[in-house]
């Protein structure tokens, strides 16, 4: 229900922005943009929103919520909200893996990683250890994938949160920087 509500609100907001009342959409963005980003990234961090990856969310958040490329407070707020939201979501998935185990997750419909993929991620964690948590969170296409093996390995909770947040901070920061550069050179001028 939460996912449907967030998606519906996002669709209405985007619709207002592009084909409806742009002033109302801007007002909603100013009032609820960071909260929406936070909630969406919790779900994305828990690997529940495959259609709304942070690869698009943070760049849009920075370009829509910051007044300019020098609005450092807003840019930092977007990055901070993204890091905290994604880390909370990853921690929830980590706890499910830690307490529920491999078979529990594999039988869940919402868990879209098959057994062979999970074997590969387990192998990465076993080979490289804890360092793969921040490294995987800092890279495209592997974000959050080592959350589950870290839970299976019963990694310390506090250590997981710190390492997950560190990798996510690196990832979200370079996404924000890329978006700001794209705006500066005119690539995202329509926003």
Unreliable runs: none
Assembly state: single chain
> Total number of β-strand segments?
0
H/E series: HHHHHHHH
Structural class: mainly alpha
Overall shape: it is globular
User: What's the gyration radius in Å?
Assistant: 17 Å
Amount of helix: over 70%
By DSSP (H or I, 4+ residues per run), the number of helices equals: 8
The amount of beta strand, in percent, is under 5%
- End-to-end separation in angstroms reads 30 Å
The averaged pLDDT comes out at 85
Describe the main β-sheet briefly: none
What tags apply to this protein structure?
8 helices; 75% helix; 191 residues
Characterization of the model:
By secondary structure, the protein is an all-alpha fold. 75% of the residues lie in helices and 0% in strands. The chain contains eight helices and no strands. The longest helix is centred in the middle third of the chain and has 35 residues, at 72-106. It is globular.
Give me the secondary-structure topology.
Blueprint lengths: L1 H18 L2 H24 L8 H12 L6 H35 L8 H14 L3 H6 L9 H6 L4 H28 L7
Brief overview:
By secondary structure, the chain is mainly α. The protein is built from eight helices and no strands.
């Amino acid at each position: 229900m939460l996912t449907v509500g967030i998606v519906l609100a996002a669709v209405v907001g985007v619709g207002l922005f592009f084909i409806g009342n742009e002033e109302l959409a801007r007002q909603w963005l100013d009032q609820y943009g960071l909260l929406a980003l936070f909630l969406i990234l919790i779900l994305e961090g828990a690997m529940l929103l495959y259609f709304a990856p942070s690869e698009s969310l943070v760049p849009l958040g920075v370009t829509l919520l910051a007044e300019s490329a020098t609005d450092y407070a807003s840019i930092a707020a977007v990055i901070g909200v993204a890091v905290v939201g994604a880390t909370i979501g990853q921690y929830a998935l980590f706890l499910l893996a830690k307490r529920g185990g491999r078979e529990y997750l594999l039988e869940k419909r919402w868990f879209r990683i098959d057994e062979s993929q999970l074997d590969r991620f387990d192998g990465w964690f076993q080979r490289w250890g804890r360092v793969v948590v921040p490294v995987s969170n800092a890279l495209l296409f592997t974000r959050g994938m080592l959350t589950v093996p870290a839970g299976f390995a019963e990694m310390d909770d506090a250590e997981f949160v710190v390492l997950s947040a560190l990798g996510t901070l690196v990832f979200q920061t370079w996404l924000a920087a890329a978006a700001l550069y794209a705006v500066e050179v005119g690539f995202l001028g329509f926003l």
